[in-house]
Fold this protein.
Amino acid sequence: MRNIFGIGMGIDLNSPICAHTMREAILLRVAIATSIMGLLGLLILADNSKPSDYTPNLAQLDREVKLTGRVVSVVEKERVAFLKLIYPAEVSVVLFKPKELSIEENQSIEVVGIVENNYKGKANIIAYRVSSVG
């Protein structure tokens, strides 16, 4: 094989070894490009998956929400706690609790959870993260 100057290069591009190496190089480039695009996609999705602020209506059913409110009542059972928060209006929160729960009345907390519909047609928040504020 000759290059553009007519000088023999000593590499046969039709040989199986050279073709195999070229295929590996192309495959490596495709894999790297796909990985970079996937990571960029994950960054975009992670930024858009933050919970929205809660508005008391049933339009947010099955959505992840975040709210900060003051606890007005706590009812603890064996594995679950029922909280009532004041967040402009009263909101019911169900928390599947760890062994020990340290939430008291008049405490300000931040709740992140999923909005569910209870049997009376009101929205409940099934909390999966509760933290004290202030």
Remarks:
- The first strand starts at residue 52 and ends at 53.
- The helical segments are 16-48.
- Strands lie at 52-53, 64-76, 80-87, 89-96, 108-117, 123-132.
